[in-house]
Amino acid sequence: MFRIDNQNTPINLACLPPEKFFNWYENQMTSIDLENKPELIDQITVKEDGSLISTYVENDSLKLKTKASLDAVQAQGALKYLEQDKNKKFYKELLQLTIDGYTINMEYTSPRNQIVLEYLEDKLTVFSIRSRIDGTYLTYQNLVNKKQNFPEII
After folding, report:
1. Is the per-residue pLDDT at 147 higher than 70?
2. How far, in whole angstroms, is CA 61 from its chain's centroid?
3. Which entry of 47, 67, 88, 147 is annotated as an active-site residue?
4. What is the DSSP secondary-structure string of 47-76?
5. Is 47 a known active-site residue?
6. pLDDT tens across 46-85, in order?
7. Element spanning 91, H or E
8. Could you tell me which residues come within 8 angstroms of residue 4 by beta carbon, excluding any fewer than 6 positions away?
9. How far apart are CA 109 and CA 124, in angstroms?
10. Looking at CB atoms within 10 Å, which of 32, 77, 106, 117 has the fewest?
């Protein structure tokens, strides 16, 4: 997603969702024997069953979007979740990383957003942090090294 000026000219990249990814053994490209090549593994996580939510900043405020919409019900629900008192630190960390040039990509799960699995409470789970400058991803080790600044994201 690009920020544009009044003449519809792109100014800069405002949001960079993840590249298309496939499940392990879903196709030939992902048919890798990870059990015998553990050095290829950076981190293993559970794939949450929700909606992709990505961050961007507008007027110094954190905003959220889905793949297709800036005002989807899922993006609105995820932002309400972040605005709760218990999630203020998480919100601030997401805002800071977004200001610093990253898009944080998360999975939004909620009782009101059932895809297949049922969830009992709202939750945002970070699954990638991508640089809007060069498209690279912060690795888990990068995040661990930044833990003093972003403990809620880890």
Report:
1. no
2. 16
3. 47
4. ---SEEEEEEEETTEEEEE-SS-SS-HHHH
5. yes
6. 778 899 999 999 999 999 999 989 999 999 999 999 999 9
7. helix 88-99
8. 10, 11
9. 7
10. 117
